[in-house]
Recover the amino acids of this structure.
């Protein structure tokens, strides 16, 4: 479902008129990438805006103000850090993006709360795995944990067997070196 179709079409129409801004002489030298760099030379034709030379980046090429910051789906992109941030979201015009630094547990809480409030999530991650983790019965988890725990005596025996004494290197003495003279 796409909302704000008119704004997205207007943004695309203006973007189509916008030239491809390329780095000066990137077409001439293979080692120069085409990504934009501002020309700064004293007699630079591109900086002086001589006709027949590619255009400079200017503020006049900006897109329409109303369509800036819109996601391609037409929603306003809002960054979320916790479940309290969901209270200021309008599900009709806003979609949420969960911040990168949010951990797994809090991400699950945000996803559950967002589905209750019918808010679109732009980066939900792997939801299938989330559902499987929650449906696992507690009794099976406890049995697995008990089976993995070893008695202390066995652990100590294994640790002692792993420790080996260090061997000294051949032909090297630890004392002072005496010169022959």
């Amino acid at each position: 479902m796409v909302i704000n179709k008119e704004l997205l079409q207007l943004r695309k129409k203006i973007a189509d008129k916008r030239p491809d801004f390329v780095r000066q002489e990137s077409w001439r030298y293979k080692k120069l990438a085409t990504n934009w760099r501002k020309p700064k030379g004293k007699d630079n034709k591109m900086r002086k805006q001589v006709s027949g030379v590619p255009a400079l980046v200017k503020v006049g090429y900006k897109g329409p103000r109303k369509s800036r910051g819109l996601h391609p789906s037409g929603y306003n992109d809002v960054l979320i850090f916790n479940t309290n941030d969901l209270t200021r979201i309008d599900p009709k015009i806003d979609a949420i993006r969960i911040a990168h630094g949010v951990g797994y547990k809090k991400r699950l809480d945000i996803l559950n709360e967002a589905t209750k409030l019918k808010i679109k999530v732009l980066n939900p991650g792997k939801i299938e795995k989330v559902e499987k983790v929650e449906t696992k019965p507690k009794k099976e988890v406890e049995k697995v944990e008990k089976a993995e725990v070893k008695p202390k005596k066995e652990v100590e025996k294994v640790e002692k067997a792993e420790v080996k004494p260090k061997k000294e290197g051949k032909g090297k003495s630890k004392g002072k070196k005496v010169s022959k003279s």
Summary: The radius of gyration is 32 Å. The chain has a mean pLDDT of 84.
